[in-house]
Specification:
The chain is an all-alpha fold and 238 residues long. It has helices at 8-31, 38-55, 60-92, 94-101, 112-148, 160-195, 201-220, 223-230.
Length: 238
């Protein structure tokens, strides 16, 4: 019933959403390995952070920073659960929702099956975001363990290679946690674009492309990227 609910234009809009989302994710992952972007620049900053931890006897501020990062991820993971609860309620009240939407002239959702299809897509998006946020949270928990095991400076004072090995390993965990947090946030962006599907499938296609443009401009051509890349970290931290 649900699979036959949408028109060809609805399925084209859904395909456009998936192509934009998956296509941009693949492009950003590939491009970050060879071009200057927020992901690649911040990766160096994290390695620099891990090196500087070794030189600090008091690491309370570092633990506080890591706790703040975990708190933001935990907030979005909890929010995903709340949104999912609302979406499931919306599916249960499909008849009432369609009745309300049918009174609005520019809204294309006029059948219960089409409403359920759109809500199901939203549910899948937020389930995906929940898994990304919770995995990011676990990675930050691993980062807490790695931070606690950071060697004291007097132990590796004359072992530069050990300092850099620790920085690379711990920096990689932090970067991986940030990467999955970014995946979860990206799901939120495309979920907001999917909301326009309830109005018109053509608006969804436009919104999906617009989200890609916004993400690309922020990741590869933002002012904050220019500021971060203008600050030169020591070469031996890479």
């Amino acid at each position: 019933m649900i699979l036959s609910a949408g028109s060809s234009q609805d399925w084209l809009a859904l395909a456009t959403l998936l192509i934009c989302w998956i296509g941009y994710t693949c492009y950003a992952s590939y491009k970050s390995s060879s071009a200057i972007c927020l992901s690649s620049v911040l990766s160096r900053y994290r390695r620099d952070w891990m090196v500087r931890i070794i030189f600090r006897e008091n690491r309370t501020s570092d633990a506080s920073l890591l706790s703040s990062l975990r708190a933001s991820v935990s907030f979005f993971a909890s929010t995903s659960i709340l949104v999912l609860a609302g979406l499931i309620t919306g599916i249960a009240a499909s008849e009432e929702a369609v009745g309300v939407l049918s009174t609005i002239p520019f809204v294309s959702t006029t059948t219960r099956e089409l409403w359920e299809l759109k809500m199901l897509v939203m549910v899948i998006i937020f389930v995906y975001s929940f898994f990304e946020f919770t995995w990011s949270l676990r990675l930050y928990n691993f980062g807490c363990v790695v931070l606690g095991s950071a060697p004291l400076y007097k132990e590796v004072e004359h072992a530069r290679s050990e300092q850099l090995d620790y920085a690379r390993a711990s920096g990689f965990i932090m970067t991986l946690a940030a990467k999955h947090f970014n995946f979860g946030l990206r799901a939120y962006y495309f979920a907001l674009a999917t909301l326009s599907w309830f109005i018109d499938p053509r608006l969804l296609m436009f919104s999906a492309v617009l989200v890609v443009v916004i993400l690309y401009s922020r990741e590869f051509h933002s002012k904050v990227l220019q500021v971060l890349s203008d600050y030169h970290l020591p070469d031996d931290y890479s």
